[in-house]
Design brief:
Distance between the termini: 32 Å
Helix content: 25-40%
Strand order of the largest sheet: 1-2-4-3-5-6-7-8
CATH class of the largest domain: Alpha Beta
Number of domains: 2
Number of helices: 9
Radius of gyration: 18 Å
CATH superfamily of the largest domain: Alpha/Beta hydrolase fold, catalytic domain
Number of strands: 8
Order of helices and strands: EEEHEHEHEHHHHEHEH
Strand content: 15-25%
CATH architecture of the largest domain: 3-Layer(aba) Sandwich
Structural class: alpha/beta
CATH topology of the largest domain: Rossmann fold
Length: 239
Amino acid sequence: MALKEIRVGGKIFEISYEIVGNGNKDIIFLHGWGANKEIMKVFAPYFKEFRQIYIDMPGFGKSSNKYVLTTKDYAKIIDEFLKNINVKKNIIVGHSFGGKVATLLKPDFLVLLASAGIVLPKPLSIRAKIKLYKFLKKFGGSKFRKFFVSKDVKEMSENMYETFKNVVDENFEEIFKSYNGDVIVFGGNKDTAVPFIAVKKQGELLKSKPIILNGDHYFFFKNPQNIQIIREKIIERLK
């Protein structure tokens, strides 16, 4: 593991990362919200012919963040970081929130794993919960925040909670549509966070038929069969 300090827009970030291998092509792995680079390192044994770059995005793992950010901010930070360590955007594999960041980085080859970015109607129970919290907040009910916020942010700092609010319901349809590089879209058949309807829509926007694998939102984690399929599809596309 290494740490690199970078400055973007007058803000300083310490980025924790790890480089595995020394191949001719760079493949970058970006984790989802609430995760870190360790979860993406399950791919390491399968891409030995590449130079693999695993990154903790700001506010996750061992990378610092004291600010309220947007997804575009994350893309700018990671872009500057990659330039700083002389890594090319040959291939970027992004999971969930990392898929949105990966798309904004406009790599030569984009691999999306259950990427966020398609906004679906919230269930009635969630809408009622949001409405109740907004009502209580008017009367000083912010102290009840821990009972209402997503489990993804319950233990996070205030700035990361505000960041979460910035990124959670972004509509990336136009951004997906404007990407013109090579792309593969993967989804999990038991994923409730990014269900099939969202993955299907991504595929339509990116003009790439989705590949649906067996599993939930983390269909690649500790699942050698699915990782092998992801590897085979990437290698096949590179030929």
